[in-house]
């Protein structure tokens, strides 16, 4: 197949699919999947044909290439976008690494070794039959009356909740991928099977097949929220959300909190509501038990009025959290999370208010209908912190997703137990400019929110550079997230020309060193943020960092020579090319994930060399030691001719010396060895 040429008319292509259908397609029991690979820059409108394709129950995957227009791709992709909106660096990459992503959600297609049989739903409990057909394992179950879907995936039940009671989907398909359960197929039937009170929602579920009587009740599995956060729900109570929407949010809030808040939960919960004004009827930490919390939520009343989401966010940033430390000298440094529940467009500006809230160290999560996606993303600053639902019932299906997003704040997924020394090198040259430098600075700030910052887990350093590099703060300067964020807010713009090479050399010699807080046995990563200017002198310093066990991750904004960038990054895996500064937020999740993967990699205790003054690092089993010539101390940091330094008896260093410091043997200075044991901190 060769290139066609001409303009990009994605809308016309969709109309062609609607008119011609799927050539050689089978009957309606076979799922139809459409994969669109595009840069998302169509010359014609795509909204209406995309909607018509989805109304035909065709699952659409949108794969963006090069520098895609994400807004258009989101219109094309099926819900939820996090499963149907994908990215490939270029057209060649679109086929690489996407097989598992695409085959996972469409694995319900009947395989050649399986067959479709009629198997009506005849029992009160769901029956599945496993049998071998050739080399395939087939599962049979009733997808709809008198029609059975046979596939590689087993079928199971799923309970849904509504304001009237519990509904049961007769069949739901799941697959196992990387040890995670993932919903695949929306069944064709759902039926009300029992009316229950809200109080029973947490512990009761009823199972039934389509057309059959209800089954005995069973205990439902509860969600878990075992993460330490201060949590505030900000609920829209304006006329735009309507009384029905407000009551739906209340029901969702009660259901979620009943499921996740236990007697020993380490979190505090508050609830605020807003329209023209803002009220905080339930302050975080006010209630110590679930029952009293539920009563307070029941007492919340709909108010009506204008939708002033921006004013509400600013008010919550100033007055929403009033924590009092248990001890005067101990700060409450729990992450503060605000979950915005809204279903109406704001009548005031939300961008500046959201930025102000995030500058106050608040982590924002937005929940709303699909048409609210753009505004919610503007509030959160990150699509991964936005949850949208397709219909009122779908809101209740989003509870596990909300639980994961809340707990990803204090315990970033993949990083919670891993130690890491992380340095950001930010281009502050005139080529970037003040406005774009502020965007880079904000990106660093929001990235830091994904790490637990202290001496034992993640240490962060920041370097800015123009023609010269400057250490804003070293790895061991700040020991809390709040201190790091405050320091980032004060970073000035430098101007002048750019020299990325001088910045990387500076990090090697003056940042990733033991005397500046670097920890032996801990993974080390440098993230270089640049517009691509001044990279000509960066390849050799980057190679020197890699040779000493320090990963260099290059994030480039704009159009720059790829070969030069690859020499600095060392591998395409450590190079992220972004089309504009506005799109930085969409790549944050990918960059954090890559950093966390590196944090889990094995390390060499002697790289970089922890020994100072030309000391030689010698590896032992789970430890290392420094051989010092003319120097002494665990890292050869003290001259033998100086008075020995007083040591801290609580120091973690484990010292082993053959003789006392300064002892001579045969008229020559004895080489002292210090043995240190390290693991990952």
UniProtKB/TrEMBL annotation:
VWFA domain location = 1-102, 230-406, 421-595
Q: Which domain of life is it from?
A: Eukaryota
- Enumerate the Pfam families for this protein: VWA
Where in this chain does the record put each EGF-like domain? 602-637
Annotated SMART domains: EGF (SM00181), VWA (SM00327)
Q: Which GO terms describe its biological process?
A: calcium-independent cell-matrix adhesion
Its Gene Ontology cellular component terms are:
basement membrane; extracellular space
Q: Which UniProt keywords apply?
A: Disulfide bond, EGF-like domain, Repeat, Signal
Q: What is this protein called?
A: von Willebrand factor A domain-containing protein 2
Q: Which organism is it from?
A: Lonchura striata
Q: Which gene encodes it?
A: VWA2
